[in-house]
Amino acid sequence: MNFSWNHSIIVFALGCKLFTGTATSDPDQTAGAVVTFLHGNVTIRSQNKDIKPSIGYLVRTGDTVITEIGAIDLQTYRGDVIRVKESSSVVFKELSGEKHSASTLEVAFGNLLVKSNKLKSNQSFQINSPTMVAGVRGTAFTFELEKGGVPKVKVFEGAVAVGYRSPSDVINSNELVSKETLNRFIKTLENYEVVLEPGEASAMDPKINEMIFLINSKIAENKLTDSELDGFKVSEADLQKTEFKVSPRENAELETLVLIDKDLVSSKLSELQSITTPTTEFSEKVDSLHETERKLAFVRISKEAESKKLDDESEIQNHYSILETIHKSNGEVLSGAIVAQLGDTFIVHSTKGVFELDVNDIEYIEYKNFKVKTKAKAK
Q1: pTM of this prediction?
Q2: In terms of DSSP bridges, do strands 49-51 and 33-46 run parallel, antiparallel, or are they unpaired?
């Protein structure tokens, strides 16, 4: 095969085909997700309008979440919690509701942290990229995709089945490729699947990832021919799983992705149906519940850090794989590691102990050879 197109040129065209924000014909008006936490610059693109969400905002089927220097936590009707981290673009193509059992997210690029409920036999939770499909089976995991990179899934709890993204859900016909050739290509992709369990991550060959991206983009644009698909093959070596050790920081971040009152979220989605703007009362209730849960999470993180009894720099560096110097606004200096961060709150494990700091408490942070200044809130 001879694919010579520029990756950056086709990414927009493929994105338009695969990641459209058009709502499905799903009649379930309870399907949606509630914004439970928000930090930094986040936009919700809904029905071709860009909206700056607030706590309690209701994301609906077809909406796109775009983060820049910021992140957002959402909780679905079913009780799945999803963190869209910074520099991400995610279409909520399907969302579960009272009658609708499927949730499907389309990741153009970016990083997700997810805790999903254990799914019943008639329920599904799927995350797609242009080249990979991840079928969730009730779990805690991350889905990472840098622009132009290879998607990667890491599982902390439960299981996730990963496979190649085939064009079967993009088009119904293609004039330049025979049905026989196209079906053979789709079958080749769908025959390969890897089930990841806790402590396992996906590993896709970058060349296969690039090739599938290019082929799918040409099919989506109705520009692929039979001859270009001749000889396409994948092997077991092209999609594998590798083991990884969960870091203390990853464990801490999982703790910060908290679940609030499921009944409150589902009842509000049912009550408001197609409405998205929350009442002040509901926003304050969601914020209060989340604050309570995240404070409990911070206590658990701090206790876990304290239990390690690390009191010198070398022990902290070995445990967290990093050593940082935190210069506080009052002139005090802490040597250690930032264990967790959620919004403006940091948990620092230092040689002087474990502390919870607000962003305004920190003047700057040193990472060996460079410094990062924090921005204090306007007073």
Answers
A1: 0.88
A2: antiparallel
